[in-house]
Amino acid sequence: MKRSNSLFGRRNRSPGGVLTPDRFPHSPNSTYSSSSSQKPTSGRNPVKLAAKSVAGVFVACFTPPETTSSTNFHDPDTFKPPSVVSNASGAGRERRRSSSSNYGIYSSSNNSTQMRVPGSVKFTLAEIYQATRNFSPSFKIGQGGFGTVYKGRLEDGTIVAVKRAKKSAYDKHLGVEFQSEVQTLAQVEHLNLVKFYGYLEHEDERIVVVEYVPNGTLREHLDYHPIIHRDIKSSNILLTNNLRAKVADFGFARLAADSDSGATHVSTQVKGTAGYLDPEYMRTYQLTEKSDVYSFGVLLVELVTGRRPIEPKSELKERITARWAMKKFAHGDAILILDPKLERTAANSLALEKILELASQCLAPHRQNRPTMKKCAEILWSIRKDYRELSAADIHSLSLHS
Ligand SMILES: Nc1ncnc2c1ncn2[C@@H]1O[C@H](COP(=O)(O)OP(=O)(O)OP(=O)(O)O)[C@@H](O)[C@H]1O
């Protein structure tokens, strides 16, 4: 790919992104992938979690209604046990509970959600058993004060959530209230309310059948943990045709420990790539988000110098690129390390100085002195803004002189 001759050469180049680098003073491109006993803080796949960002929730708030119903899957292959079982605590609100059945089992020959008014249907036990594969534990999606929630599929293919009341919690005197509740639910229908399909009340079974909502709860989205990539390097950053950077290779990634607890991951073996590895992580085996920040600092130096993090053929004092670059920067000679393919314009010089300043913070020996990735992104956006203003001024003065 041909490099642009300016630091922010393309309009679409965005300094956002996330992630970082690690360094290791050994062979240049070797990846440290040996085993570690370190476990993710959760059994959930961090990459899948990444997709469930808080931003997604808010974007969804401003997104037009879906045109295809997410609850109708006629392809039998799409009905699978849920991959994540949520364990909502039962500490929530106290449900009104129902009692002995005045209604019994209503048997319908065509209990299709498309053929009936939502909420009007009394389901049979046979239908509920069929929909939930006999309340198979693999279809359990949640637990609350009311009871257990299962994912299910009705005969017509509609995917539903089946809420089964706890038998122990069932109060014989509250049958009327259960009825009154389901009748109220049957009367309301709104895009932002979980659709109520029907219920079952028979002997000691109380079941409510509602729309299955697939993307987890707001709480789960808010609890999203940051990811430590652990192998930030230029060869793990892919570029689209518009030069939008996409971070790839989450093979070493870990969910960050809960920052409130102050906990860190402790590795038995350091992973990452030579030239990018955080020296503090190498020394202490303690992994935090700031290890990625260190690697990101190496990446920034790589970006402005065009050099590899380790240049084995260079003379000793230039071999570790970040060290060499930081020394030049400290002596006021930043311009000498600018990638020779880049022009020495005023805008490029300014961006170079500012990027090296940010890199020096990212490369701080102690993690507490490094900025967060969020801060890095903010600084990069402001560098980009200044760069673009100065570039425009450069072009203007050039055209005045020509
Ligand atoms: N319609 C649904 N679609 C997908 N998942 C659901 C649905 N309803 C509930 N769940 C899952 O099951 C969990 C427990 O559900 P819910 O809170 O409704 O149970 P509950 O017994 O009424 O709880 P409580 O009365 O304690 O609030 C939820 O946190 C969610 O993860």
UniProtKB/TrEMBL annotation:
Pfam families: Pkinase. SUPFAM superfamilies: Protein kinase-like (PK-like) (SSF56112). InterPro entries: Kinase-like_dom_sf (IPR011009), Prot_kinase_dom (IPR000719), Protein_kinase_ATP_BS (IPR017441), Ser/Thr_kinase_AS (IPR008271). Residues 1-46, 69-111 are annotated as: Disordered. Residues 27-42, 99-111 have a biased composition (Low complexity). PANTHER family: OS01G0750732 PROTEIN, PROTEIN KINASE DOMAIN-CONTAINING PROTEIN. This is Protein kinase domain-containing protein. The lineage of its organism: Eukaryota, Viridiplantae, Streptophyta, Embryophyta, Tracheophyta.
